[in-house]
Structures are given as C-alpha cells and as structure tokens.
Amino acid sequence: MAERNTETAERRATSPLWLFPAALFYYELVFRLFTAGHIFRWGTLLSLGYCCAWGGICHVLCTLSRSPRRNRRATIILLVLAAIPYGVEDFLYWQFQVYYSLNTIVNGAGDMLTGFTGDVFRLIFSGGGLLRLVLYLAPGVGYGLLSARPGPARIGGRQRAVALVKALAVLVICRLVVGMSPELSLVHGERYTFPAAVEQFGLLTGVGLDARESLFGRATFQAVDAPAAATASPAPEQTPAPEYAPNMLALPLDDATADGAIQDVNRYVASLQPSKQNAFTGLFKGKNLIFITAEAFSPYCIDADLTPTLYRLATKGVQFTDYYQPAGAGTTGGEYQNLFGLLPVDGGGSFSELVEDTGAVTIAGYLTQEGYYGKAFHNNTYTYYDRNVTHKRLGYSDGYMGYGNGMEAYVQDQWPQSDDEMISGTLPTYVDRQPFSVYYMTVSGHNGYTYLTNAMTRKHWNEVLDLPCSDTIKGYLAANLDLEAAMGHLVEQLEQRGIADDTVICLTADHFPYGLDGGAGLGAQPYLEELYGCEVNNEFDRDRSCWILWCGSLEEQDPIVVDEPTSSLDILPTLCNLFGVSFDSRLMPGRDVFSDTEALVFDWYSWKTAYGYYISSEQKFYPTVDEASLPAGYVENMTTVVANKVNYCKAVLDTDYYHYLFGQ
C-alpha cells in the first residue's frame, strides 16, 4: 500500500507530458504572429508535430533526477532557455526584416550589442519589445509560480523509453508528411534555406536544419538538360560579330588528386560556358574606381531637384532599369554580394569564411595586381562585423580605415556618422595617387529615421519638411541627403582636379530600407510601399534597387541602357570586363551585363529572367511574355541552373575553393 501511495504521489508530481509540446508550440505561434503576421497555415500543423516530438524529449530530460526539486528547476530553466532563440530571432526580424541563420547571429551578436546599443534598448524597452518579453517568458515564469512543489518526479527507464519512442515516431511521421510534398521535400533537403525552413516548418525545425547544414551539408550539382541560355525573342540576322576571346583562366579543373568535394566543384565549373569579351571590354581600362556600398539606399531617394548629383550620376552613366539587391544577411551580406559576386549562403559568417585563407578575389585585388593604390573606408565602428579583419583582406593595397583606427580624424562622433564628412575628409588622402581604387561602406542612411534619434535626419530635416509624405519617409529621405551631399562634393572635386573623365563611380545599396516598417513582412509594409509607390508582395518587389555606374567620359555619349534584369551578383564580372582585367567568368554566378550570357537574377531559389519570375515559396512561375514563346522545359531548366549556382556559392565556402585555386 505504501509503495502504491508513493507511486501515486510521484505521478502527481511529474510535470504533464503535454507541458513542453504546448510551450514550444506556443512559442512558435507567438513568433509566427510577430514575424509572418499570421498564425494558421500548412506550416503551422507541421510546427505542431515537431513541437510534440521535441517536447516529448524535453519532458524526459526534465525527469531524469531522483530529486523532484531538481527536476522542477530543470523544467523552469529549459522552458526559459527554449524561449531565448524565439525571442532573439523575433527581435532580429523586427530590426532587419529577414530571418537570421545561426552563423549570422553568432558572427553579429557581439557587434549588435556593442555597435547598436541604442537600437537594442529602443526595441527591448518599447511597447512591442516589452510585450514580446512578457509573452516569451510567460511559460517559464508561469510554471515556476503555478506548479506544485516539490516538482516532477523521476520516471522509470521503461517510461522514458516509451516517451522517447513516441517522440521519435512523431518525428518520423512529420518527415513522411514532408516527403509527400515535393515543395516541402526540396526545402527540407537539397534546396534548403533558413528563411524557407522557418516559414514551412517553424523556427525549432529551421534551427535544427540550419545546424545540419552547417555540420554536414555538401553541395551537389545537377545536370542541366535544356540549354541554359535563351533570349526573349530571336535576334534578326546581322553582320557576323567579331570573334571575342573567352573570359577564362588556366585553372586546375582536371586535378585528379584533389579532395572529392573539390573535384565536384571543378567538374561543375568546367561544365560552364565562359562569357566572352565584347565591345565594352576595357572601356574603363586604367581609370580610377570609387566603389560605394550605400546603407539602405534605394532608387526612390533619387530626385532631380532633391538629389541633383545622384540624379546626374544615375542618368548620365550606365542606366540599369531592372536592378535588384537581394536581402538575406543584412549589411554584411549585401557587401559580400557586391564585392565577391556570391550569395551569402552562410549568412553573416560568409564574409569572414571567404577572406580567412583565400586573399581577395575582388575587383580591388585584380586592380592592385595592375599597380593601383587602394584603400577601404567605413564611417562607423571599425571592428563592426569584424571589418578590422575582413576589410584588410579585400585586396586594397593600403588596407582599411574605420571609426577607431583613423576615421575619427574626419567624422564627428554622432549616430549615424556623416557620409559627407567621411568622403570629403578622406578624398585628399588618395586623389593624387592615381590610378586608385577605393571602397566606401556608408552609414548615414541607417534606420531609425526620426528627428530625435538620427543625427542625419536632423541635419537635413528642413530640406524635406515640405514634402508630401509621412514623417517616416521624410526622415529616411533626409538621412540619405547626406549621401547626396557627399557625392556632390566628390564630383565637384574630381572635376576641379580634371580627373572626372578618368574616374569611375560604382554605387549600390546593401539591402532594401528594412528599417521603415519595424518588422512587418511582405504584403504588410505600408512605409516601404509609400516610398516605392506600389505594392510590395514578393522579394522582387521588395528588393528592386539601384546600381549607379558613372564616369565623366560617358556624359557626352549616347546613354548606355541595360534593361534586362540585373543584380548585385553582376557587379564584379561587369567591372572586371570594363576594366579589362584577366578573370574567369565561370567562377562568378553573376554575369557581365554586356556579354551574351542570359540575364538572370536569383535570390536563393527564386529567380527572374527576361521571360518572367519564379517564386520558390509558391513553386510558381509568373511569365512576363507570351507563354507560347517559352522554350520547352524552360522553368525546370532555370530552376536547376539556379540550384546549381546556389550550391556553388555554398561549395566555395565549404571547400575553401578560392584558396585551392589561388592560394594566399
């Protein structure tokens, strides 16, 4: 009888089996509500299944001790710990409007806390931030206050085994359900992306898949059955064009002694057709280059009256009418795309991984080999995103300067710092050292576009005061007017020194202005839509951006218009061609926009060509031409082409491929 009473007491003391599944699913619902803006869809049911499985395992872990008090403490601790990734990811999405992978969070966490302390506290102690904290802490705190003492009892070995078997059975069922859907199978497997995994399976499973990819992922390449190149309409018969040489180098692609993964990449690269030189090859040979990645810049900042210099540069140089800046890893991801021409498949860690051992496969590196003086500049904290390490290895001969290792001599200590002060102050340090190649990462356009919190918004507020738009948009435009001032002074100085015709300005953004809408997802971004003047329903609507490519020598010529889809991945091969450097186009997923290679923009597995665009989350193609003009198997073919390009971007990092090809 005594034994029976003890067993009954222990059963009563044991935390209910449903506690952790319910808590995890609750976290998923709260997270989905704040990020995606909705709760119930197909992915919600999968989230429930995975939460039941992992919750069962958590239940077992919290009933291992013979001491009910220890089990109770373990339950409270695990409930709170389980809430942390949801809270962190939620706040990051609120700030940056993208789901950040583990690598991105790990590499940027310290910088976020030290570099943007004001933004962090602003979010946490706002009404929305406090509400999030309360909701995510509720299960742990609630259990601690309401649960019976002394706590969960230790369950027997047979009970643990049964609970584990049930949890594993639920995992198997979830995996079988995923396997029944081609779309879900691709996201779970060969076409995994962290954002898609979070959307389809929930954050818990997304983090698990991200860890799997980081530890065991290996890029694979599929054969392309249909021709990769096509044109929207057959070209009329013309006089035969001159025969141009291919853009390729002598690479060890048939190296039988290389590692197996390297051989896979070698075979893929060898299977590609290199682009050819063309009538624009060497157009900028020997000219100076000023390369600018502008924080949160967009074409909607440009106005003939408000920003006359930016308007001049955008209309008097090469005109890109359909340009995109894919957003996937914040500022460092945008820089990575602009400089290396690769998709940041490892999030914020991609930059550090690529430059750690490989040196610089950048336009800076190529120009340095030709005797250019070079330097990289940034007007915010020089250590942010480890730029004090990565930006010294971009190929610029004189390294890197940010605020803290020299830039403080030129810019004031305010937030955000002035682009005008940075560019005007540093210009004299290199302008007489021709040919030069310099890089600027600006910060004046950083989010937080209010009069009280943004020094650049305050500085230029009177210039936007009478514009017919909301104060949020006025604040954004005002912040970007400091970039306009910087470009005005830059062009003025180039012209006064007589070198405008010998200097190229390449300017683009790092990402769309995600700070306008405080964490809202696609289809619910009123300020972004106000700025754009149209609805924003997919990534191509959101990421439409601006690429300025100007040289004083172009102003007297007929406009050069590129009206095919282009993106930040096209910048590197295009600059290599224009500056006439020796490069291998097969190593670059983007294209020289003046080549005969088919125009292709891709953001992970979504893509756009002259024929239309494909949204991977919907597995749907939206044609922009008569569907009858599509080549047979075109959508399937391009989807495979894009998957191979994404896998190549992964393989470059996973195999240290550039180090293998080029050494230090």
Itemize the secondary structure elements and their pairings:
Layout: H1 2-13, H2 19-35, H3 42-61, H4 68-96, H5 102-115, H6 117-124, H7 127-146, H8 157-179, H9 182-188, H10 194-201, H11 203-216, H12 260-271, E1 288-294, H13 308-316, E2 318-320, E3 323-324, H14 330-340, H15 350-358, H16 363-369, E4 373-381, H17 387-390, E5 400-403, H18 419-426, E6 436-441, H19 455-459, H20 461-464, H21 471-496, E7 503-509, H22 526-532, H23 539-543, E8 547-551, E9 560-562, E10 566-567, H24 571-578, E11 601-603, E12 606-609, E13 612-615, E14 620-623, H25 634-654, H26 657-662
Parallel strand pairs: 1-6, 1-7, 2-9, 3-10, 4-5, 4-6
Antiparallel strand pairs: 7-8, 11-12, 12-13, 13-14
Structure, briefly:
The protein is built from 26 helices and 14 strands. By secondary structure, it is of the alpha/beta class. The termini are far apart.
3D structure, described in words:
This protein has helices at residues 2-13, 19-35, 42-61, 68-96, 102-115, 117-124, 127-146, 157-179, 182-188, 194-201, 203-216, 260-271, 308-316, 330-340, 350-358, 363-369, 387-390, 419-426, 455-459, 461-464, 471-496, 526-532, 539-543, 571-578, 634-654, 657-662, and strands at residues 288-294, 318-320, 323-324, 373-381, 400-403, 436-441, 503-509, 547-551, 560-562, 566-567, 601-603, 606-609, 612-615, 620-623. With 664 residues, it is α/β, with parallel strands linked by helices. It has two domains: 2-216, no CATH class; 289-594, Alkaline Phosphatase, subunit A (3-Layer(aba) Sandwich), CATH 3.40.720.10. The strands form four sheets. Strands 5-4-6-1-7-8 form a six-stranded mixed β-sheet. Helix 12 crosses helix 25. The longest helix is centred in the first third of the chain and has 29 residues, at 68-96. The protein is globular, with a radius of gyration of 27 Å. The N and C termini lie far apart (76 Å). Mean pLDDT is 87; it is low at 1-13 and 226-236.
